[in-house]
Design goal:
- By secondary structure, the chain is α+β, with helices and mostly antiparallel strands.
- The chain contains six helices and 14 strands.
- It has a five-stranded mixed sheet.
- Strand 8 and strand 9 form a beta hairpin.
- It is elongated, with a radius of gyration of 29 Å.
């Protein structure tokens, strides 16, 4: 009796398969038991990712280095029998918080320029304008729709109308610190307060340049592994 009951229960799990009009049908939904895949661990630098690749720690087979974005690079294996990949490692860039299209008072904006941007000529000009604004005269602006001017110190003891640079070419920290930060144009605007803001003006082209910079950096560091076919880089 017990044996018959067990055989009946087992039988309930069996699927009836038949073919009709050139198609295969089952009376039960089937679920694939997939080959287990790895979940990635995360690092924050490209140098850590390179060290991992050179170590052959998890795999001696070829791997794909995928430059997902200016701030993310992943390493995955070739596909397995289930068309899935092992996901070995992910590098996620640590970058400072810079809010474009957002108004800052002049002091906070000054700090952002010095701490979150690579030094260049336009950054230095902006710092000079912001650092010399006369507090009592900041409401006196001249604006022709494109350029702006503000009352600021122009000498040791004199003030005058200083043109606000616009557009400006800047290099904010937006990708991994190991690579050259992409340079792009910004619209620099000021309003009464004074408050300052930067508006991106390159249509996101900097992202493509940042990813290209990452690719060049990885190719230089992994030349031997690429030549041997162990590493394939895609962006």
């Amino acid at each position: 009796m017990i044996k018959q009951a067990i055989e009946y229960i087992v039988g309930l799990g069996k699927s009836e398969i038949h073919r009709e009009n050139g198609q295969t049908f089952s009376d039960k939904q089937l679920h694939l038991v997939e080959v287990p895949t790895l979940r990635p661990f995360e690092v924050n630098t490209l140098s850590s990712l390179i060290s991992y690749l050179k170590s052959n720690f998890d795999s001696s087979e070829s791997v794909i280095v995928h430059i997902v974005s200016p701030t993310e690079v992943t390493i995955k294996s070739s596909i397995n029998a289930d068309k899935n990949r092992d996901y070995f490692i992910k590098a996620k860039a640590l970058i400072p918080e810079i809010y474009f299209d957002n108004w800052y008072d002049s002091e906070k904006f000054n700090i952002k320029l010095q701490s979150c941007f690579v030094k260049n000529d336009d950054r230095d000009v902006m710092l000079k304008v912001i650092g010399n604004i006369k507090e009592e005269d900041v409401k006196t602006f001249g604006d022709n729709g494109v350029s702006q001017s503000v009352t600021a110190k122009v000498g040791v003891a004199t003030v005058g109308q200083v043109e606000v640079p616009n557009p400006v070419v800047l290099k904010p920290y937006r990708t991994f610190v190991e690579v050259d930060q992409p340079e792009s144009e910004f619209i620099f605007r000021m309003i009464n307060g004074p408050s300052c803001a930067l508006f991106e003006a390159d249509g996101g082209a900097w992202k493509l340049q940042a990813m290209k910079n990452i690719e060049v950096y990885l190719q230089a560091a992994l030349g031997e592994e690429i030549e041997n076919g162990k590493v394939i880089i895609i962006a």
